[in-house]
C-alpha cells in the first residue's frame, strides 16, 4: 500500500448513477428502518472515518448511506487529496449524489418522504449543492466546514439548513455568512449557521484538528436538526 493512502471503507451497495453505476457504504439502524440520510465524504475519500460516522448516524436512527465519490481511492496526503478533488467532475459527483437520493427514497428501510444530507469538508459543499439541485426531495442539509463556489444558484433550495464551521479555517466566517446571505436572498431559507472556536475538520478524530468539545456539541445539534426535518 502506498504511504499516502489509507484503507478505504468497504463498499456494500451499488445504485444507478445516470447511465452508469455508483457505489457506497450503507448502514441500517438497529430497528431496521428510519429516515434516509446521505453522508458525504471529505476530500480524503470514503475512508474508514466516514464509515464510522455513517455507523454513528445509523445508531442515532437513520438509514445512512455514504456514496463513494472517488471510486475506492483514499489518501491522507493533502496534496493528493487536493488533486483527487480537482479531478472529480462536479457533474459526475452530482449525478452520484442524485442517484443516492433515488436509492434511499426507494429503499424499503427508509420511512421518510424526503432525505437528509450531511457532508464534511468537500462533502459540506456538496451537501449544500445537493439541497440546491434536488429541491423538495431534501428535507435538511447539514454542512460541516464546506461551502461551494459563490456562483451557485440557490433558488431551488427548500431544505432546512444548519451549518457547522470553524473560526480557524481557510474558509472564513465572512465567506460562510456571505453564502448564508445568498441562500436567504435567492430562496428565502434562513440557514442556522454555527461557529466553533476550533480548526477545520474538528469532527475528524483521526486528524490533529480534532476538537472533542466542538465535535460533541455539533453532533448533538446536527442529529436533533435532522430528526426534526427529515420525516
TrEMBL record:
Keyword Hydrolase: yes
InterPro entries: AB_hydrolase_fold, Dienelactn_hydro, Dienelactone_hydrolase-like
Superkingdom of the organism of origin: Bacteria
Gene Ontology molecular functions: hydrolase activity
Occurrences of domain Dienelactone hydrolase (ranges): 24-229
Protein name: Dienelactone hydrolase family protein
Pfam families linked: DLH (PF01738)
Family matches, as SUPFAM superfamilies: alpha/beta-Hydrolases
Gene source species: Nakamurella leprariae
Hydrolase among keywords: yes
Keywords for this protein: Hydrolase
Amino acid at each position: 500500500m502506498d504511504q499516502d493512502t489509507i484503507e478505504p471503507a468497504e463498499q456494500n451497495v451499488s445504485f444507478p448513477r445516470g447511465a452508469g453505476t455508483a457505489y457506497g457504504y450503507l448502514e441500517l439502524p438497529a430497528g431496521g428502518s428510519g429516515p434516509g440520510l446521505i453522508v458525504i465524504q471529505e476530500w480524503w475519500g470514503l475512508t474508514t472515518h466516514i464509515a464510522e460516522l455513517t455507523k454513528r448516524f445509523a445508531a442515532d436512527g437513520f438509514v445512512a448511506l455514504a456514496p463513494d465519490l472517488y471510486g475506492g481511492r483514499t489518501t491522507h496526503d493533502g496534496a493528493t487529496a487536493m488533486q483527487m478533488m480537482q479531478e472529480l467532475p462536479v457533474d459526475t459527483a452530482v449525478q452520484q449524489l442524485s442517484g443516492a437520493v433515488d436509492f434511499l427514497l426507494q429503499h424499503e428501510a427508509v420511512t421518510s418522504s424526503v432525505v437528509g444530507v450531511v457532508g464534511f469538508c468537500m462533502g459540506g459543499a456538496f451537501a449544500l449543492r445537493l439541497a440546491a439541485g434536488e429541491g423538495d426531495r431534501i428535507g435538511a442539509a447539514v454542512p460541516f466546514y464546506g461551502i461551494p463556489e459563490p456562483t451557485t444558484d440557490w433558488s431551488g433550495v427548500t431544505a432546512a439548513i444548519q451549518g457547522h464551521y470553524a473560526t480557524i479555517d481557510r474558509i472564513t466566517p465572512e465567506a460562510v455568512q456571505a453564502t448564508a446571505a445568498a441562500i436567504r436572498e435567492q430562496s428565502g431559507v434562513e440557514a442556522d449557521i454555527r461557529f466553533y472556536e476550533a480548526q477545520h475538520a474538528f469532527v475528524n478524530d483521526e486528524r490533529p484538528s480534532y476538537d472533542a468539545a466542538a465535535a460533541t456539541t455539533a453532533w448533538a445539534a446536527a442529529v436533533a436538526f435532522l430528526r426534526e426535518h427529515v420525516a
